[in-house]
Structure to design on (895 residues):
C-alpha cells in the first residue's frame, strides 16, 4: 500500500516535473537579443502565426504575446500604469482612440520607423507615437445558407431589422466594436441601438465569436471584422462579406512602443517588421488588408483606397469612452 | 523520515520546561493572520471606504436594481440546481446501492464522473450539444420541424441544468454513503411487522436518508452560489447575471468598491447556506449508524421494472458523462464549429496548434506547479492546526481551527479579491499571488481531512512515545506523522486535483506568464475560438482521466472513481 502510494506520487511528480522543466529552462535562458512583450487583440491563431514569422526574421528575439480583447487589455494597461508602468514593450490594439489617451498620458514613446514613410499620413501619429500596422474593417457578414443574397442586408440601417437572427460583438470586450459604436452614435444617433435592442439583436463577445456563431448557423447576419470572416471562408464556412453601402467602419489598428518598454531595441525591430513589405505580406497571408500601397491585399479583398468608410470620430471617442460604453450597456446589455 | 534521526538520538531532557509545541501554535497563528485574517478584513474595509473616508456608498451601488437581480438570480438558480440534483442524486443512489439494477458496477463511476470534470468544461460542452445549432439541438429541431430553437442552453435554465449535472455527485455520494451505512435491521423490523416495500420506504428508509439528501443539497447550493465558469459562459447571451459574474464585471470596470460590497452580499448568501447546513445536520448523531460493519441487505428486486430502470439510468449516465466529452472531442476535430459532419470537415490542425502553443504549455506547467505547491503548503499548515487543536488541545488552538476553517464559507471569487487587495501591490503578476489564494481556499479542507485521520489515532500511542522519553515534537514527528500520512496523502491529492484546473480565482489573479490552464481554456472559449478551446480541453481531460486512473491504482480504489 505504502509502496504503491510512493510509486504513484513519484509518477505524479515526474509528470509535473517533465511538464515544468522545459518551460523553466526556456525562461531561464532567453536567446540573445532578449524578450519583447506584446499586448495585442489580434485573433489567437493570427497572433501566433505572426509572432512566428517575426521570430523567424529575427531569431535572436523572443516575442511574447498576451492576447485578449482590446478592452480587457486596456483594463490591464491602465491598472499597470497605476502600478509602475505598462509591463509590455509593445501595444497593438484595434481600439485606435485609446492610443490618443495613452499618448496624452505619456504612456507611449515616439519612434519614427524608416518603414513608416510608406504609410499614409492619416494612419500615423504626427508625433510618431503610433502607426497603423493593419487596416481592419467592420462589415456585415451573412451565412449564405440561411440568408440568400437577395434578402441580405445592404446597409447598416437595415441591420437591426434582422432582429434575433443577427448578432454583434460587445464593445466591453472588443475595441473595434467600441469604435463602431462611437461612429454609429455620430452617424445615426443612439436610435440605431435602441432599435437594435427592440428588434432583439444579440450581443456576443468578440468578433471571432460572432463569425464562429455565423458559421455554426446560430445566426444568419452578423457585424464582425473582414479578415476574420475571410479566414473562415477560406476554411470552407458558408459565409459572405457584405460591404455596406454607407461604408464600412475602417479602423487603422495602431502599433506603439510603451514609455516603460524594457527592450526598446527589440520593440523597434518589431515595429519595423510590422510596417515592412515582408511583415505586411505576412499579414496579407493571414487575410488582413495591408497599410502599404506597395503590398497587394488578400485576393478578393479591396485595397484601402477602394474602401468606402464612414467617418470615424477618433478624438471624440477617446474623450467620451466611458460615457459611450455606459450608454451602450444601458441600452443593449441590461 | 528514516534519515537524519541519528543526530537526534540524544536523550531529551525529562523535565519539560515549556511545551515546544506552543511554538507551532504561534507560527500557525502568524501564518493565519497573514493568509486569512488580513486579506478577508481587506474586503470588508475596502467595501466601506472611498476616497479616504468611511462610507456606505459602495453598498448603495451594490443594491441597485440590476445588482439585486443578480443576487436573486444567484439564489434561485442555485436553489433550482440543488432541487434537481437532490432528485436525481437520490433516485440514482437508491437504484445503484439498494436494488438489483443491471450494470450497477460500471454505472457508478460514470455518474460521478462530472465531479472530476471542471464545471466550465461542462458549460463549453453543453453549448456544443444544446446551443442554437448544437449536436443534439439540430436533430431535435429537424424532428420537430422547427426553424430555430425556442430554448437553448444559453439561458437561466441552461445554467441550472449544467450546475445540477456538475454538482449532483455531491448528493449521490452522500446519499449512497448513508444507504450503505444504514442499519438495515430497522427496515427488517418494519417488514416483519407486516409493512410492504413502499411502506418501509416511506416510513423508514426515506426518513433515515433524508438528512443525507439535504446535506448533499446544501453542498450543491454552495457550489452553485460560488461557481463562476458556468454562468459566465452561458449567461451573457441571455443578459443573465449572477453575483460571481457581476463581481467579475465590476472588477473589469474597475470598481473595487462595488466589487467588494457585492462580495459581501455573496458571502452573506454562502453563510446563510452554511447555517442551513448546520441546521440540517443538527441531529445527525442520532441515526448516523457508522459504527457497525455495514450489513449488506438483500437488494430490492425491481422485477419487471429492472430493464426500464436500467435504460433510464444508463441514458442519464451517458447524457451527463459521455455526451459532453464526445462533443468536445468531435468539436476539437472540426475545421470550424457547425461544419457538416463529414470526413472533409475533419482536421487535426487544432491539436497541432495548441500543442505547439507556448502559452498553453506554460499554462499547463503553471497549473501543475500551483497544484503541487498549494496542496503541500495547505497540507502542512492544515496538519499543524489539526494537530494542535484536535490532538494536543493546546491553548488558543480553538481559534486557529475556527479561523483556519473560516474560508470554507467564503466563495472563491471573494478569496481572490481578498488576496488581490492584501498582497496585489507586491505580488501582482506572480504565481505567488495565485498560490496564496489557493492555499487560503483549500486550507479548511486539509484541516478537516487531517483532523478526521487524527481522531482515529488513540492517545496511548503518543503516550507510549512520551514514556519512552521522546519530547512532544519528536513524538509528533516519529509517531503521529507516520500514522496519519495515508490520510494526509489522500487530502493532498484531493487538493491538488481541483487546484490543477482552478478557474474562479485564477481568472481574477492571472497575468502575463502566470496563466493557468483553466484561464487559458476559458479565455479561448470566451473569445469564440471554440475549436482550439475544445482541443486543449480534450488534452486536459485526458490528463485528468489518466491522473484519476493512477490515483485509483495507487490507492487501490479508495480514491478516484
Amino acid at each position: 500500500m505504502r509502496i504503491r502510494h510512493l510509486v504513484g506520487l513519484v509518477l505524479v511528480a515526474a509528470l509535473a516535473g517533465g511538464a515544468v522543466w522545459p518551460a523553466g529552462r526556456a525562461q531561464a535562458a532567453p536567446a540573445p537579443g532578449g524578450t519583447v512583450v506584446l499586448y495585442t487583440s489580434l485573433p489567437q491563431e493570427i497572433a501566433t502565426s505572426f509572432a512566428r514569422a517575426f521570430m523567424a526574421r529575427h531569431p535572436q528575439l523572443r516575442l511574447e504575446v498576451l492576447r485578449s480583447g482590446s478592452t480587457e487589455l486596456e483594463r490591464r494597461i491602465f491598472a499597470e500604469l497605476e502600478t509602475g508602468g505598462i509591463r509590455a514593450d509593445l501595444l497593438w490594439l484595434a481600439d485606435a482612440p485609446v492610443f490618443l489617451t495613452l499618448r496624452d498620458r505619456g504612456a507611449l514613446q515616439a519612434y519614427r520607423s524608416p518603414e513608416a514613410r510608406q504609410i499614409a499620413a492619416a494612419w500615423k501619429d504626427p508625433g510618431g507615437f503610433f502607426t497603423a500596422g493593419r487596416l481592419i474593417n467592420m462589415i456585415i457578414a451573412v451565412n449564405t445558407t440561411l440568408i440568400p443574397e437577395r434578402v441580405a442586408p445592404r446597409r447598416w440601417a437595415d441591420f437591426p431589422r434582422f432582429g434575433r437572427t443577427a448578432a454583434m460583438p460587445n464593445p466591453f470586450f472588443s475595441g473595434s466594436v467600441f469604435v463602431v459604436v462611437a461612429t454609429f452614435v455620430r452617424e445615426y444617433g443612439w436610435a440605431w441601438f435602441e432599435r437594435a435592442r427592440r428588434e432583439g439583436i444579440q450581443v456576443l463577445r468578440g468578433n471571432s465569436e460572432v463569425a464562429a456563431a455565423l458559421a455554426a448557423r446560430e445566426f444568419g447576419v452578423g457585424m464582425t471584422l473582414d479578415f476574420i470572416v475571410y479566414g473562415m471562408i477560406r476554411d470552407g464556412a458558408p459565409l459572405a462579406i457584405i460591404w455596406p453601402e454607407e461604408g464600412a467602419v475602417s479602423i487603422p489598428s495602431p502599433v506603439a512602443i510603451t514609455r516603460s518598454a524594457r527592450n526598446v531595441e527589440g520593440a523597434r525591430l518589431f515595429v519595423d517588421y510590422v510596417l515592412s513589405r515582408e511583415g505586411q505580406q505576412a499579414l496579407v497571408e493571414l487575410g488582413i488588408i495591408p497599410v502599404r500601397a506597395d503590398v497587394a491585399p488578400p485576393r478578393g479583398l479591396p485595397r484601402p483606397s477602394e474602401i468606402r468608410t464612414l467617418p470615424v470620430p477618433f478624438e471624440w471617442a477617446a474623450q467620451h469612452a466611458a460615457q459611450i460604453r455606459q450608454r451602450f450597456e444601458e441600452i443593449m446589455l441590461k | 523520515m528514516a534519515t537524519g534521526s541519528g543526530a537526534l538520538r540524544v536523550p531529551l531532557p525529562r523535565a519539560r520546561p515549556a511545551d515546544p509545541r506552543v511554538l507551532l501554535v504561534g507560527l500557525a497563528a502568524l501564518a493565519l493572520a497573514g493568509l486569512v485574517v488580513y486579506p478577508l478584513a481587506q474586503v470588508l474595509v475596502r467595501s466601506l471606504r472611498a476616497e479616504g473616508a468611511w462610507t456606505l456608498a459602495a453598498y448603495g451601488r451594490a443594491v441597485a436594481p440590476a445588482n439585486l437581480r443578480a443576487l436573486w438570480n444567484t439564489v434561485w438558480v442555485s436553489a433550482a440546481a440543488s432541487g434537481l440534483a437532490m432528485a436525481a442524486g437520490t433516485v440514482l443512489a437508491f437504484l445503484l446501492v439498494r436494488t438489483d439494477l443491471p450494470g450497477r458496477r460500471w454505472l457508478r463511476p460514470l455518474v460521478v464522473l462530472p465531479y472530476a470534470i471542471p464545471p466550465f468544461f461542462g458549460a463549453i460542452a453543453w453549448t456544443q450539444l444544446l446551443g442554437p445549432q448544437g449536436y443534439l439541438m439540430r436533430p431535435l429541431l429537424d424532428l420537430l420541424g422547427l426553424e430555430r430553437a425556442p430554448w437553448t442552453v444559453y439561458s437561466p435554465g441552461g445554467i441550472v441544468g449544467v450546475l445540477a449535472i456538475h454538482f449532483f455527485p455531491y448528493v449521490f455520494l452522500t446519499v449512497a454513503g448513508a444507504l450503505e451505512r444504514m442499519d438495515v435491521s430497522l427496515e427488517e423490523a418494519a417488514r416483519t411487522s407486516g409493512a410492504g416495500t413502499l411502506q418501509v420506504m416511506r416510513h423508514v428508509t426515506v426518513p433515515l436518508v433524508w438528512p443525507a439528501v439535504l446535506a448533499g443539497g446544501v453542498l450543491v447550493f454552495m457550489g452553485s452560489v460560488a461557481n463562476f465558469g458556468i454562468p459566465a459562459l452561458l449567461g451573457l447571451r441571455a443578459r443573465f447575471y449572477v453575483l460571481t459574474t457581476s463581481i467579475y464585471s465590476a472588477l473589469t470596470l474597475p470598481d473595487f468598491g462595488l466589487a467588494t460590497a457585492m462580495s459581501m452580499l455573496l458571502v452573506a448568501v454562502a453563510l446563510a447556506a452554511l447555517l442551513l447546513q448546520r441546521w440540517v445536520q443538527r441531529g445527525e448523531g442520532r441515526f448516523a449508524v457508522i459504527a457497525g460493519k455495514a450489513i449488506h441487505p438483500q437488494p430490492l428486486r425491481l422485477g419487471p421494472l429492472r430493464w426500464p430502470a436500467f435504460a433510464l439510468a444508463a441514458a442519464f449516465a451517458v447524457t451527463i458523462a459521455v455526451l459532453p466529452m464526445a462533443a468536445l472531442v468531435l468539436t476539437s476535430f472540426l475545421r470550424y464549429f457547425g461544419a457538416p459532419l463529414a470526413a472533409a470537415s475533419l482536421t487535426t490542425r487544432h491539436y497541432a496548434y495548441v500543442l505547439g502553443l507556448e502559452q498553453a504549455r506554460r499554462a499547463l506547467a503553471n497549473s501543475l506547479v500551483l497544484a503541487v505547491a498549494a496542496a503541500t503548503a495547505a497540507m502542512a499548515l492544515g496538519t499543524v492546526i489539526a494537530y494542535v487543536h484536535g490532538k494536543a488541545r493546546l491553548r488558543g488552538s480553538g481559534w486557529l481551527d475556527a479561523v483556519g476553517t473560516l474560508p470554507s464559507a467564503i466563495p472563491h471569487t471573494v478569496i481572490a479579491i481578498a488576496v488581490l487587495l492584501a498582497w496585489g501591490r507586491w505580488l501582482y503578476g506572480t504565481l505567488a499571488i495565485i498560490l496564496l489564494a489557493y492555499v487560503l481556499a483549500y486550507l479548511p479542507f486539509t484541516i478537516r481531512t487531517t483532523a478526521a485521520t487524527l481522531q482515529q489515532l488513540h492517545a496511548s500511542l503518543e503516550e507510549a512515545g512520551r514514556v519512552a522519553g521522546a519530547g512532544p515534537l519528536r513524538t509528533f514527528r516519529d509517531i503521529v506523522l507516520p500514522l496519519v500520512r495515508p490520510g494526509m496523502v489522500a487530502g493532498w491529492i484531493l487538493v491538488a486535483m481541483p487546484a490543477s484546473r482552478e478557474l474562479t480565482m485564477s481568472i481574477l489573479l492571472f497575468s502575463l506568464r502566470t496563466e493557468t490552464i483553466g484561464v487559458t481554456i476559458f479565455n479561448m472559449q470566451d473569445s469564440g475560438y471554440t475549436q482550439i478551446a475544445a482541443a486543449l480541453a480534450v488534452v486536459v481531460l485526458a490528463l485528468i482521466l489518466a491522473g484519476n486512473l493512477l490515483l485509483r491504482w495507487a490507492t487501490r480504489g479508495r480514491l478516484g472513481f
The mean pLDDT of chain B is 87.
